[in-house]
Amino acid sequence: MNKDFREGLLQIDLGAIGDNYIQLRDRLATGSRCGAVVKADAYGLGMAEVAPALQRRGCRDFFVATQDEGEALRQLLGDDVRIVVLTGVRPGFELDCAGAGLIPTLFTLEQLREWVALCSRAGIAGPCALKVDSGMTRLGMTPEEFDQLLADPALLRSADIRLLLSHLACADEPDHPQNALQLRNFQEAAGRLRQRCPDVELSLANSSGICLGGEYHFDVVRPGSALYGVNPVPGGANPMRAVVELRLPVLQKRRLGTGRSVGYGATQQAAAGSWLATARGGYADGILRAQGGRGCGWACGRRLPMVGRVSMDSAVYDIGALSEVERDGLESIELLNREITVDEMAGYAGTIGYEILTSLGHRYGRRYLGS
Ligand SMILES: *Cc1c(COP(=O)(O)O)cnc(C)c1O
User: Fold this and answer.
1) Which residues form the catalytic set?
2) Is there a single domain that holds both residue 46 and residue 91?
3) pTM
4) What are the tens digits of pLDDT across the range 270-287?
């Protein structure tokens, strides 16, 4: 392995991300645009590489979580894209936000009033997005506040509301009754706002929301995870291309003469005669500790069970399934690839693919394909 990759290789396929973008876009109802969520450093995969790749595939609507991310993205992509900051603007930083051409998502009446007043005092345009709570109870105007907004025509006239957003709580469970309920609430809010502001665009669906069907698509959709290979229809076949591959160097191989316990806490026994390999990559590298004793690696076309707890910098694998020649040649173990998906790894750790991606460590070398 070359020096850049001696602590492991995280390979990110920008071509696959681009293909996933096109695949999602091709499913959309007529008139709906496909945006992209690149918050949290594009789910840990590197916004600086991922966002330009999406822009090259035609994406013009980007969503980030924070103003810092938005400012960095503006530098990266230039003025030709729309950037929406999903968690709004922090008091005292409104003019920076407007100055960078970012569209803050506002979710209280007070925020909207403040934003409009500040922009008007500064004599600058203040396009914004508005978020309503359609049932998730996280961020968004309450129905009472939304009523107050609609009863304030002066505010609606002076505010430059470009987008009405809401977020689905259960989109990854297509049969959950909450989906239809949130859809109705959003449609109702949208209808009322558009009577006063006919040009406001509408956006409801994340990755899984896109898969719920055309009535969830509206003007712009906001996929994140599916772009990065996470299955938007958990339980079903994953329609997305795998994006990440993670390969870790083997540090030590051994055959046990007698049965012994393995790792911290001596939680698991390995029998006499077992072949074990210890590889780099522990919980400080995003190999979540919760998968200890359940997760697996991959080499020579076979799954290799993890044995014992995951340490901070390494974990142990049972390589008994390999032939002697394969064992002798074994220099690395794959933790993520086409076979072991982020969803599979997440299952071992009792979490979701999103957390696997955003936990990926910074000690690996990174290689981008298709850049
Ligand atoms: C993160 C986020 C998304 C993207 O969700 P995925 O499930 O990753 O597609 C969309 N909308 C909002 C408001 C978000 O916070």
Assistant:
1) 39, 264
2) yes
3) 0.96
4) 999 999 999 999 999 999
